[in-house]
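Query structure, 210 C-alpha cells:
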C-alpha cells in the first residue's frame, strides 16, 4: 500500500530552493552507498545551503582554488563534485588541486571537456573523476570507456539529449549525469534519454528576491 510522505517546511526554511519533482524519475547514481538523483549547479554557498538537491556540482569559469572548494564542502553537508579544471588549467596543478579536494571531502572531481584522455587516465589513479562531454564530435567511446572516468557529465546545451542517446548506444549502464535544462519538460527528456541523474541550475539571487 502506498503511503503519503509527510512534508514539513519550517518557517525559517520556507524559501528552500526545490528541484522540480520530476527528477525523482531518474534511477540515480549510487556513490558510496548514497543514491544521487539531482545535483545543484552552483558555487553560491547560500544557494547550496538552501537547496534540496542530493549533491552539488561546483564548476566555475575561473582558476580552481582550494579555498573555494573547502568553503563549498563545509557548507554543503552533502556530496560535492568539485571542478578542478583540466582545460586551460592542467598538469601538476590540477593533480594537486584534485588530491586536495579529495582530502578535504569532495566525493569526486569534475574535469572540463578539453582535458586530454591520457591526463584523465593518470588522474583517475588517485581520485574518482566526473568527465564532462559537451559535443557529439568528441571521441565518445574513448572518453566513456577508456579514460578511467567514473561518471560522465553531459553538458551539451540543445544537443544534450542527442549526446546522451549516443553514449547509451555505446554503453547502456555507464553512470551519466546531465544538465536538466530550463523546464520540467527538458528534465524529463534528459532522464528518458538515459541520464541517471540531472544537474539543476537554480534561480539567481535576483530572481529569488523578486
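Result returned for the query:
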Amino acid at each position: 500500500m502506498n503511503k503519503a510522505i509527510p512534508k514539513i517546511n519550517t518557517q525559517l526554511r520556507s524559501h528552500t530552493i526545490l528541484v522540480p519533482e520530476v527528477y525523482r524519475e531518474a534511477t540515480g547514481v549510487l556513490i558510496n552507498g548514497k543514491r544521487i538523483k539531482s545535483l545543484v549547479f552552483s558555487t553560491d554557498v547560500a544557494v547550496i545551503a538552501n537547496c534540496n538537491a542530493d549533491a552539488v556540482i561546483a564548476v566555475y569559469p575561473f582558476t580552481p582554488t582550494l579555498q573555494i572548494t573547502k568553503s563549498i564542502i563545509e557548507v554543503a553537508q552533502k556530496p560535492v563534485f568539485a571542478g578542478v579544471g583540466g582545460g586551460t588549467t592542467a598538469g601538476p596543478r590540477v593533480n594537486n588541486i584534485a588530491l586536495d579536494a579529495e582530502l578535504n571531502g569532495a566525493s569526486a572531481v569534475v574535469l572540463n571537456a578539453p582535458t586530454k584522455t591520457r591526463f584523465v587516465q593518470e588522474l583517475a589513479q588517485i581520485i574518482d573523476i566526473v568527465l564532462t562531454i559537451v559535443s557529439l564530435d568528441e571521441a565518445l567511446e574513448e572518453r566513456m570507456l577508456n579514460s578511467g572516468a567514473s561518471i560522465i557529465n553531459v553538458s551539451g546545451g540543445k544537443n544534450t539529449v542527442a549526446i546522451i542517446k549516443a553514449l547509451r548506444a555505446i554503453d547502456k549502464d555507464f553512470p551519466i549525469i546531465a544538465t536538466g535544462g530550463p523546464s520540467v519538460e527538458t528534465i524529463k527528456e534528459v532522464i528518458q534519454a538515459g541520464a541517471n541523474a540531472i544537474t539543476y541550475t537554480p534561480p539567481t539571487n535576483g530572481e529569488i528576491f523578486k
